[in-house]
């Protein structure tokens, strides 16, 4: 129940909708470029995660190979840096208030996933 309340508050006050929209724009651009469709899929996965982050976490996929690492370099150039920057700025802004600290920490946890998303998966925490 607490995770549900935190996720609803995150949607309203934590910037979840705005951050998910950023991922959506990145996904749309990646889908339009056809070659970058795998990046679009990763962006959509992270958009859903940024909408509802409490109770879930991002972990490395054990079967991801060198191609994921090389593709992540391209991702950083195309979209990763500005998405990670948006999480960083939102996290700093939210940590300025005591009530916003949990949401700021959630944004900081999204920075590595935004910067290097391929070869990772979103799982539910127990």
Automatic annotation (TrEMBL):
Q: Which keywords does UniProt give here?
A: Membrane, Transmembrane, Transmembrane helix
Q: Which residues cross the membrane?
A: 30-52, 64-83, 89-110
Q: Which GO terms describe its cellular component?
A: plasma membrane
Superkingdom is Bacteria
A Pfam family per the record? YccF
Domain named Inner membrane component: residues: 5-56, 70-120
Which InterPro entries does the entry link to?
A: Inner_membrane_protein, UCP028777, YccF
Which NCBIfam families does UniProt cross-reference here? PRK11770.1-2
Q: Please identify the protein, giving its name as recorded.
A: Uncharacterized membrane protein YccF, DUF307 family
Originating species: Micromonospora coxensis
Give the organism's phylogenetic lineage. Bacteria, Bacillati, Actinomycetota, Actinomycetes, Micromonosporales
